[in-house]
Specification:
By secondary structure, the chain is of the alpha/beta class. It folds into two domains: 213 residues, Rossmann fold (3-Layer(aba) Sandwich), CATH 3.40.50.300; 46 residues, Alpha-Beta Plaits (2-Layer Sandwich), CATH 3.30.70. Helices cover 35% and strands 29% of the residues. The protein has a nine-stranded mixed β-sheet, with helices on both faces. Strands 4-5 form a two-stranded antiparallel ribbon. A hairpin with a 3-residue loop joins β6 and β7.
Length: 287
């Protein structure tokens, strides 16, 4: 089972939920944790994994043999991302625009294009609680595209686990969609504020397109009004949990503590949440 934790905006407590759920399940369930927020990974700061392997993350970019190139421009025309341009007597490659799709090399009529790996970040592998797998990626500073790293990270997931927890990037961009792809269930973390509701609606739009089952955790409960709960009630999304607005939670998180360490009662709450999600998935399958 793959459970993704997402939010329409940053700072809602998404990683807090993901790490505490992973820590609560790890002692009794065979799980793995992936931090897919490759632009700013921070789950490792809370789970303190032992990192034992680092691999480069790369994409294949075109390398042009100018002695063989006939300057026909087919590679320029086929590129949807404007990563190639015919400038005078040369095809110019804009590496950071290239998505590594390979269309240019496939359509070159004289086979003047080969593909060369270019490093855009790193994949890091380790373990936490009871040797549970922990994976995360880091996008190299100045690199614009995180989705290739997320796909490569997910391709290294273990198949022989009971549950996979994926900590998604914030927002509702392509990197989020890449993380949520193939998830059996999505936990949306929001807050009862106008910003929280606005960005929750964006994520609901994404979920409606992917068709994933989803439920919502309301963090900082008590600081706003009932607009978020009213919206969820009207649209049929269950409220899975409420986490109160308390200064001791903020202080603990700032010092690297897990929510279940700050408020131990939440350990059972996350275990119960897992059973609730399994039941929802079971009902959906056999409905």
């Amino acid at each position: 089972m793959k459970i993704a934790i997402a939010s329409g905006k940053g700072g809602t407590g998404k990683t807090m939920v993901a790490t505490s759920m992973a820590a609560a399940l790890a002692p009794i369930h065979n799980i793995q944790m992936l931090d897919c927020d490759v632009e700013a990974p921070n789950a490792h700061l809370f789970l303190n994994p032992t990192i034992n392997e680092i691999k480069p993350a790369s994409i294949n970019i075109p390398t042009i043999d100018y002695e063989q190139c006939i300057l026909c421009g087919q590679c320029v025309d086929i590129c949807e991302f404007n990563a190639l341009a015919l400038l005078g007597d040369k095809i110019e490659v804009f590496e950071q625009l290239c998505h590594g799709c390979g269309s240019c090399s496939i359509h070159c009529p004289v086979n003047a294009i080969t593909e060369t790996p270019r490093k855009i970040g790193e994949l890091k592998f380790g373990t936490f609680n009871k040797n549970r797998p922990f994976l995360f990626g880091e996008l190299t500073i100045s690199e614009p595209m995180s989705t290739p790293i997320i796909r490569q990270l997910k391709s290294n997931m273990k198949d022989d686990v009971e549950v996979t927890i994926l900590d998604s990037p914030p927002g509702a961009s392509c990197s989020v969609v890449a993380t949520l792809h193939d998830a059996d269930y999505v936990i949306l973390v929001t807050e009862p504020t106008p910003f929280g509701l606005h960005d929750l609606k964006q994520m609901i739009g994404v979920i409606s397109e992917t068709g994933s089952l989803a439920g919502v955790i309301i963090n900082r409960d008590g600081i706003g009004d009932s607009a978020v709960e009213d919206f969820l009630s009207k649209n049929g999304y269950p409220i899975l949990m409420k986490i109160p607005y308390q200064e001791n939670i903020a202080e603990g998180l700032a010092s690297g503590k897990l929510l279940i360490d700050i408020i131990p009662e939440f350990e059972d709450a996350f275990l119960n949440l897992y059973e609730m999600i399994k039941e929802q998935i079971h009902e959906e399958i056999y409905h």
